[in-house]
Amino acid sequence: MRVCLLSGEFPPMQGGVGDFTREIGLALDRLGATVSVIASTRARQPAGAPQALHDGTVVERDGLGLTLFPVVERWDLSSWSNVTRLLRYTKSQILNIQYQTAAYQMHPATNFLPWRLRFVDEKPGIVTTFHDLKLPYLFPKAGLVRRWVTKMLIRASDASIVTNVEDRMRAQAYGARNLYLYPIGSNVDPQPPLGYDRDRWRQRWGVGRDETLLCYFGFLNESKGGETLFRALARLVTSGERVKLLMIGGRVGSSDPTNIAYLQQMELLIDELSLANHVSWTGYVDGEEVSANFRASDICVLPYRDGVSFRRGTLMAALVHGLPIVSTYPRVEVAEIVENENMGLVPPDDAEALANKIAEVASSPQLRRRLARGAAELSTLFSWEGIAENTMRVYEGVLRERS
Fold first, then answer.
1. Tens of pLDDT, residues 29-73
2. What is the pLDDT of residue 360?
3. Which helix (H) or strand (E) holds 151?
4. Superfamily of domain 2-185+383-402
């Protein structure tokens, strides 16, 4: 089967959708699919990566074997010509749109792409994987129109994949047909650098053996509860807890411009709360260093404002590392998440509750062991092989309907 993945992000760009696209592409390749990726020009590979030229288009290998077309300058209507040309060139039977509105510069052109492809000879089957259902920007006070634009993409797709229960409910309300729920996997393997030593790694961040090292993974943006995290940390420090916080990964990512303004607000808040000596930042690092930082930590804190969800790659990375996790109650009940068995949970936007739960987990070795064991067991549900197999079945169903 010939599959084309369309993504606004792709490594070396920083972002969860790009990492997902690479991982699912590699897993589909292992199942025997021929996979190509159409992505932003910012996804061009480092110097020395294999390249070829087709009809004036740079064709690259991403270093792991996927055929990459990093050709889209802007995700507006001008992107359609590149996409349709490359679909013909690759003779793709399936176009799988990896959809997150921020990855497409908040422009609705990708939402209308399936309708444009109706006029293309040998149109591929169209599957859209919704990484979230945030609405694209059109113009001020365009709420109803923005919702209609998102419905257009759902209804024009031959099949839709969502990653969490809440988005499934919303997609059903939008009229989705052939709707599937498949959570994402971890973009980070639990594999630290050769010769990793936990004590030395903690010393690197100035953390003593009698101190609790909290960690947070991922970019800072308003939906992830950064303000609650820092205010909870301040409460812990004020109460005499010996605790430090390690912020793992890049600070803002490559796609969402609002992250920059939010980061600046959080930096001011850290200064206001006198937390500079208690917070360390790793910056963007490779997977082995991310894994080392997870393993050096005692508790992972992910206080999502919209509730914990399996659409979050940051959560999946913490699960696969078997860390005790403190997060927020999901908006919609998720059967697999069991409070105080595989996750500690608190209400969103509640710094006092978050601080109290962290202190409870930190003071109880038994609870930490139970949460760590539960997280590791939960992570086994989300292998890339299983996700790829499920996705292939969706593709096959779409092609059967079209035959």
1. 999 999 999 999 998 877 655 454 444 455 555 555 689 999 999
2. 98
3. helix 143-156
4. Glycogen Phosphorylase B; (3.40.50.2000)
